[in-house]
Specification:
By secondary structure, the chain is mostly helical. Helix content is 49%, strand content 4%.
Length: 295
């Protein structure tokens, strides 16, 4: 299927907890992770943000504690999921691969958000290293540092997205991981590129789509896009308003703000139909506790 998203913004550099998975599901995912690590045996170069922050599988320092962050994604090439019959088997293979990576990227963002929340409480006593880290976050997220609203602006951007929403968009934009852009470029979200000769060309058009070094890099770029691009301001405002009220951030509410993601008139309807059909299955593949997670 054609991938339509044309609002990728070049980089300047929580969702509610979900219900526990069954032991067998956890075991399947662990076995997959070990198998991928053993087969690929390759490291992925850190993104610009990671390169000047901390080792991917190390710790993120906060002002008083440290937060473990997951290891980098070892999946440098998306498996050809067309080998699985369309339906439950292909869905399971796709979710076993994707869900842990989305959770890992959300965890890294949450660690940075936790650091910001603590730093905001102690602005007058930040160390030189803290101030340097703050400057890097400002650069990464396109925020001017040193203003009275620096922390508020950053916190509106440095935030997680609901697992179900991320997965559903990957499903729609990549055809459960089977599109050419997904298979050849690890591009699960239809992220375009615009420089001369970049990425993968769409057959029959002048459009080009980004080619990512890993599946993890594709997820990272998608999350950063929604957290920084001006087209998704309404999404970020909706997320912030729900958190301000103490409400869970639902995938459905944020999906309804994505009018700039696609030119299709029925894009909301397509995503919401996929969400209704697959939300429970996605939660079954999650490692978190979200018994009451809103779709």
């Amino acid at each position: 299927m054609p991938i339509r998203h044309n609002l990728f913004f070049p980089r300047l550099s929580s969702s509610r907890p979900l219900a526990p998975r069954s032991c067998s599901a956890r075991q399947r995912r662990s076995l997959l992770a070990f198998a991928l690590l053993g087969v690929l045996g390759a490291s992925v170069a850190p993104s610009p943000m990671q390169a000047h922050a901390e080792p991917a599988s190390g710790e993120v320092r906060t002002l008083e504690s440290s937060v473990d962050t997951p290891a980098l994604d070892p999946v440098e090439q998306l498996p050809d999921l067309r080998q699985h019959p369309a339906g439950p088997e292909r869905k399971a293979a796709f979710l076993e691969l994707l869900v842990p990576l989305v959770e890992a990227e959300n965890a890294k963002i949450q660690a940075q958000r936790d650091w910001l929340l603590e730093a905001r409480e102690r602005q007058a006593s930040l160390s030189a290293a803290d101030r340097e880290h703050l400057q890097r976050l400002c650069a990464d997220y396109g925020i001017e540092c040193g203003t009275p609203n620096t922390f508020e602006y950053l916190l509106s951007r440095v935030d997680t997205l609901p697992l179900e929403m991320v997965v559903i968009q990957a499903v729609e934009e990549s055809g459960w991981g089977t599109s050419r852009f997904a298979r050849k470029g690890n591009n699960l979200f239809g992220l375009r590129c615009f420089s001369e000769g970049c990425g993968l060309a769409q057959r029959g058009s002048s459009r080009h789509y980004q080619n990512f070094d890993s599946v993890q890099a594709s997820i990272e770029a998608y999350l950063h896009n929604l957290n920084t691009h001006r087209a998704y301001l309404a999404m970020r405002q909706t997320r912030a308003a729900q958190k301000e009220k103490g409400a869970a951030v639902s995938a459905e509410s944020l999906i309804r703000t994505l009018d700039s993601y696609s030119v299709r008139d029925n894009y909301f309807d397509v995503l919401l139909a996929l969400l209704r059909t697959n939300a429970e299955l996605i939660r079954e593949h999650s490692s978190n506790d979200a018994e009451d997670s809103p779709a």
